[in-house]
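User: Need the bound-state model for pyridoxal-5'-phosphate:
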Amino acid sequence: MELSYILNELGEDRELYYNAVAPPILQTSNFACKTVDDMRRMLQNEAESYLYTRGNNPTVTMLEQKLAALEGAEHAIAFGSGIAAVSAAVLSQLNAGDHVVCIEKPYGWTNVLMKRFLPRFGVEVTMVDGTDTENYRRAIRPNTKLLYMESPNSFTFELQDIAVITALAKQHGCSTIIDNSFASPLYQNPIQFGVDLVVHSCTKYIGGHSDTMGGIICGSREMINRIFEREYMTLGAILAPHDAWLLLRGLRTLPVRMERVAASTRKVVAWLEKHPKVDRIYYPFSPSHPQYELAKRQMKSNTGQFTIALRTDDIRKIDNFCNSLQHFLMAASWGGHESLIYPAAAYYSNGTHKGKLDFNLVRFYIGLEDPDYLIKDIEQALVAI
Ligand SMILES: *Cc1c(COP(=O)(O)O)cnc(C)c1O
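Assistant: Bound-state model below.
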C-alpha cells in the first residue's frame, strides 16, 4: 500500500460525513441498535462492531487502520497512552508461572512493569543486554513465553537484532513484542522481521505536536481481537475520540516532519562529534557506532534522538550546561515540534542517585527548528563545561 494512500485516504469514507475533508470526531459513548437481532449480532462480535466507545469508535478505527497499514500489520488497537499499550500487550501473552526475557534499560515504566508489577502476579522476568543475541538465548527457560524488545532502547539507544531474536523465539515457542516508538512506523517495521506485536507511544512522533497522548498495538487480527476481548475491555485504557482525531491530524504530516527531524539531527550530530567537550555520542547512525551496520539493516533512517556524554567529572558543570540552553526545553518525551534535552543528572541529588545512567549523559531530541539555530545554542551552552 502506498504511503500517500494510507495517510490521505485509507479508512476515510467522506460520503458518510457530508464530504468533509477532515474526519469527524464521533464524540459519543453509545451507539443505538434498531432491533434485538442487531444487538445480538454486535454482542457476538463486539471486536468488529460499534456498540460502546470503550470498545470501538469510528474516529479511533480510522487511526487504527492507518497505523496497522503503516506497520504492515493486519490489525491494530489504540490506547490512551503508550504505556497502556505496552502493558496490555505484555499482559496478553502471560499467565502466572510464565517467564519473560526483556532487554535491560527499557523505557522507565516498562522497567517498572517488568521488575515490580509482573512478579506480583507470579511472572518471572530476566533482563538482558540485548546487543548480544546470545544473552537472550541463554536466558530462555522451559517456561519462557515472551521475548520483549525495544530497539533502539531508551536513553543509550542500544539495538537488538530483531530478525535473529524473533527466529529464536519461534524456535522456542515464545511470542515477541517490540516497542518501536524510537523509529516511528516510517523508519522501522518489525513485522517484516516476524515480530508478533509492535507497540508505539503515539504521544511521540505520530502525534508530533506535544498536545496529546496515545498508544497502539499492531499485529495479526487474531492476536489483536484477543487483546480487545481481554485486556482492552477490562482495563479500559481507551483512546478518546478527540485524541484519535489529533493523532490523525499528526499523521498527515508525519513524513515531512520525520525527514526534517532526521536531516537536522544529522547536522547537529556531525557538529557535536567534532567538539572536544563531547566525550561520546550514543547515536546508532554514526559510522563509528558498534551497531551501525545493524542500524542500517533494520532501520530506514536515523530519527531525532541521541545522547551525549560530556567531558567532565563535575555534576555542577552539567547542570550549568543544561540550564544555559536558551532554545532547547528541558522535558520528558520527544517527537514534537520542539527540541528537548533530558539530563541524567536529574536522577542525582546530593550525591545519591537512582538508576544506572552516568550523570554526564544528556539526551537530546532535535525538533523542527533550524538546525543552525540549535547548534548556536549548544555552542554557547558548552562554554559551561
Ligand atoms: C514515551 C515512551 C513510552 C510511553 O508512552 P506514553 O505515551 O508516555 O505512555 C513507551 N516507550 C517508549 C520507548 C517511550 O519513549
